[in-house]
Amino acid sequence: MTSEDQLANELPASNSLANRYGGQKRGLTRTSKRNIVIVALVLGIVFAAWVATSSAQAPVTFKDIGYSTVDGTRAEVDYQVTKYPGATAKCAVKAMDSKFAVVGWKVIEIGPNDPKDGADGGSTTAQRTVLRTESPAVSGVVDNCWIVDSGK
Prior knowledge:
alpha+beta, 3-stranded antiparallel β-sheet, 38% strand, elongated
């Protein structure tokens, strides 16, 4: 055995592992731990604020009830809109032909409801929209509804 082999055999195992894989990792300092906690708290507060403000905005939902084709140039779409009674919503209503091409389109504004109307406090209203079509329609649906900002 050479003197290097003897020296390698005499070194403690932890020293040879440290040479091979690096030394022991140091733990986080007190300042680092404090900064991580502060960042986590700030992110938690921002998330809570986002949830609070997004749920404060009045949602609007719609449900297609039916449609009828009056003639080759008109279609009627029946639907229900559920929203906060004091909010104003707009709904895009469309009529389609047998190839699902849009042949009629209209945006309807639905104003505030009377909270005394209906069993649900006036949040759901039935709507009927008459659409002019450029060719005979075979279906009619609500494409989307959204709340209109009252400040505009």
